[in-house]
Design brief:
Chains A, B, C: It catalyses: 5-(2-hydroxyethyl)-4-methylthiazole + ATP = 4-methyl-5-(2-phosphooxyethyl)-thiazole + ADP + H(+). Chains A, B, C: Its EC number is 2.7.1.50. Three copies of one chain form a homotrimer. By secondary structure, chain A is of the alpha/beta class. The first copy, chain A, is built from ten helices and eleven strands. Chain A has one domain: UDP-N-acetylmuramoyl-L-alanine:D-glutamate ligase (3-Layer(aba) Sandwich). The first copy, chain A, has a nine-stranded mixed sheet, sandwiched between helices. In chain A, strand 3 (about 60-65), helix 4 and strand 4 (about 90-95) form a beta-alpha-beta unit. The first copy, chain A, is globular, with a radius of gyration of 17 Å. Chain A starts with a helix and ends with a strand.
Chain lengths: ~270, ~270, ~270
């Protein structure tokens, strides 16, 4: 039944091409824009403080990512999140690098929480740190498995409607839908930079098409399933063609774009708690 | 006859590899640099206010794009345009996102017009807005067709030597050569981010090799034809190989690079007004 | 014997995946991160002044590149270099665009020299300029051959432990190992933007795994050999598949990633001075 809802949402994404306002990092922005286009959305990367607040008002959804903040961009994030909150526009917070060692951006993220993100998406280290646990990371990469931080992630459900933890298995937590586990994808995903960042923006793309009476967690689930299937297909082709990680990235974009409704049945998705 | 002029210009581009000074957005800069290299130019992305004015003096041509401006970068644009104007160096203005909702950058663009851009290049929404018409857009994407804004675009020919409107059909307007319509390309181009931004830089690359007695409109025509053919070839190969949008981008770069003089005959180009 | 040391170092890179702190330019950052991942390192692009100094303390190595500096980023470079120097962490300085015409960044580079970079890596024009010679360049591209500037480069060996000059033949200079010449690679490398920038970061990746009793020059040699072989393989495949420069970039990433220990024997490496 969940698969059917995802397929319907995906079709709506293709039909309406929602405008997704992205404020992301300088490593990711080209890839994020191309991923958004490949899944069917219309991205606009407006990240200056002069325009971001105003622009967030007209977007279907907003995605904020703290990979390479500057003081100017941090203000753009604040103004955009403020607008989104005021206009009841759904938005995604991707707290890249949240940790003790990267204290400045972590404070930026803390400040953004007041604007009630719809989805908080991150790797296990980031989610655990954000939930207040002592955690460790390797730069911006996680040193924890996603299943280790589910309990801690629950604590964030007062701050947002949905928490998405990416890893070998992805976990999507919400009060509305409980906990969904998505298994699949490829263990090569961490070998392509900005994969997680792009996933955050795709969550926003799907948020741009969820109905009023649907949970935003459905958008997060759809985004993670779409990603996992594309990564699976890309890895299979990479191995079959005996190519490497450069080709994997291209095959992944191809798969995001070429995906058909049937493909959504290829991934393992389980509701592990209600 | 126009095809022959384009072929000659293209050959000159290969032979001289002009230095093209690009001030572009953070989503586009890697792709723009690679596109410039693929067509035969030598790009340099100098976008700080301390160096941009000085550097524009030694470049063969300048390309300015307002996709993700910062206050610092806006000054770099101003100083570079000022230098280009003072040195009679040709330059391209690509007013990405020009619209009422993105008022700050639109003011930056307005201020740059005093330095008389050689070519103004944009999509239909941007060109219409810049010409003072009420217009609408979807973020940084056009909601108008290129043929709807030709009349409005004419009004910009006092401000610049040539206006290039990209779309399903591209229109190149100038007092010297009238209106040229270029049909071809691929409708997948808007599905790859920064395609338009790269086209602006390629206009600058061709401006770097036009002779004194040639119209800058010839550079714009050559750039659009080069782009359209490459996109056509890329789409054909994408379909033949049953791949997707990630591969399309790579095949497009391949085609820009592998193009031969004969290929320039593959596109439909018509002078629709004198 | 040198090949064996390189193979051992490469294996260690795969096994330990050192955290490489990169402060690089906005054209290169996505490609640099993907190249670092492809060779086996774990990159983190922390380039704000609030966090860079602190982060450099926990990284295995640091790479600083002056391609598109901003005043804020220049401070991040300074703080990171200062930390690296204080912690005896090895770091690479890639003085992109060092020249008279780009005076502002050249001053930034001059200021960074006080923190004693482990490796200075650049093209022939940059290295000659930095060594105080009158030099010329075409934007950020070299107009000199690498073999023309070996003598000048020697003068930098007081300021750093190793100088790496890239070109048709790469030269790696150090007091410990003399001068090594690496021939191979592909003459298509300058046709892909940020190739040199990525090479600087790969030098840092290898610095992250050299032993205390090994010369940092070994890291530079390993990085240049790894790059040269991958470029060779990529060009061979590009020609065999009759594709172009877009595919070359992807094939290059594939080759960096798919390289096997045996492949390191494919490149010509000679100690031309002791």
């Amino acid at each position: 039944m969940i698969i059917q809802s995802i397929q319907t949402l995906w079709q709506k994404l293709q039909d309406t091409q929602p405008l997704v306002h992205c404020i992301t990092n300088s490593v990711a922005n080209n890839f994020v824009a191309n991923v958004c286009l490949a899944v069917g959305a219309s991205p606009a990367m407006i990240d200056n403080k002069q325009e971001a607040g105003n622009f967030a008002r007209i977007a279907s959804a907003l995605s904020i990512n703290t990979g390479t903040p500057t003081p100017e961009q941090a203000l753009a994030m604040q103004y955009a999140a403020q607008s989104a909150n005021a206009e009841h526009t759904s938005w995604v917070l991707d707290p890249v690098g949240y940790s003790e060692i990267l204290a400045w951006r972590s404070q930026i993220v803390d400040d953004l929480l007041q604007y009630h993100p719809t989805i908080i998406r991150g790797n296990a280290s980031e989610i655990a740190s954000l939930a207040g646990a002592q955690s460790s990371s390797k730069g911006v990469d996680s040193t924890l498995d996603s299943n280790q931080v589910i309990d801690q992630a629950q604590q964030l459900l007062g701050t947002c409607d949905c928490v998405a933890i990416s890893g070998m298995t992805d976990y999507i937590l919400s009060k509305a839908l409980g906990i969904f586990a998505i298994t699949g994808g490829s263990n090569l995903q961490p070998k392509v930079t900005a994969m997680g960042c792009a996933l955050g923006a795709v969550c926003a793309a799907y948020l741009g098409v969820v109905e009023e009476d649907q949970s935003p967690a459905l958008a997060a689930i759809a985004a993670h399933v779409h990603f996992a299937i594309a990564a699976q297909i890309a890895e299979e082709k990479m191995i079959a063609q005996n190519v490497g990680i450069g080709s994997f990235q291209i095959l992944f974009l191809d798969a995001l774009f070429q995906i058909a409704a049937d493909d959504f049945e290829k991934v393992e998705i389980n509701q592990i708690a209600k």
